[in-house]
Amino acid sequence: DVQLLESGGGLVQPGESLTLSCVASGFSFKDYAMSWVRQAPGKGLEWVSTIRGNGVTINYADSLKGRITISRDNSRKTVYLEMKSLRADDTGLYYCAKASTYVTNDFDHWGGGSLVIVSS
Amino acid sequence: EIVLTQSPATLSLSPGERATLSCRASQSVIRYLAWYQQKPGQAPRLLIHDASSRATGIPDRFSGSGSGADFTLTISRLEPEDFAVYYCQQYDASPLTFGGGTKVEIK
Questions:
Q1: Which residue from B75, B83, B86 is spatially nearest to B106, judged by alpha carbons?
Q2: Which of A15, A80, A108, B10 sits a CA distance of 20 to 30 A from B79?
Q3: Is residue A103 predicted with pLDDT exceeding 90?
């Protein structure tokens, strides 16, 4: 079974940094793009970033570009999201999601999410 | 950026009724459109990909249709477990975008 397990969330002050991790199992990790999607409390889904299996092709949401870095370690089956200069509106549940095929960016498996709270 | 507009925002129906949810894109996404179901406290679940293909394990009461910029998710007969929020997502172009969601609630 495919499993995605996020970690690294927590309470941080505005302006601080945080790195989220997502450990994958149950599929050939290196072959699939991985993404981060976030959800503010009581709100809808917002795509954050995607990294292809090769780790070279990367896309970011414009609203976050410059403050986030996505990366992956295929040997550890882990994808990371480094976030800097965090703001109150970055508060939310951050999901790790797996692409459903080698070439598309719909998401057939999601982790349970890692909660990030930005507050002083 | 491709904007996805879902309607209605809320759909109040009874179990056994048919639900019809709409997702309209600001430009063509061909058929690169997915639907997700999200229940409170849970991660989203993929229902439909490529506009009309059911994901693994999804009951056949869920169906998707459409192409270009207009898409529909139909739930033929609502079961108690279908009351949830539904999101569409386009993956034709970056940035990937989601619609604002439709809440299907019990009437």
A1: B83
A2: A108
A3: no
Nearest to B101 by CA among A96, A59, A61, A42: A42
pLDDT in tens, B64-105: 999 999 999 999 999 999 999 999 999 999 999 999 999 999
Both structure tokens of B105: 């609630």
Partner-chain contact A108 B1, CB within 8 Å: no
* Rounded-to-integer distance, Cα A17 and Cα B86, Å: 32
Per-window interface: A 79-118 vs B, CB < 8 A: 95, 100, 104-113
Contact (Cβ atoms closer than 8 angstroms) between residue B76 and residue B18: yes
Check CB contact under 8 Å for B96 and A112: no
pLDDT tens-digit series, residues B20-63 = 999 999 999 999 999 999 999 999 999 999 999 999 999 999 99
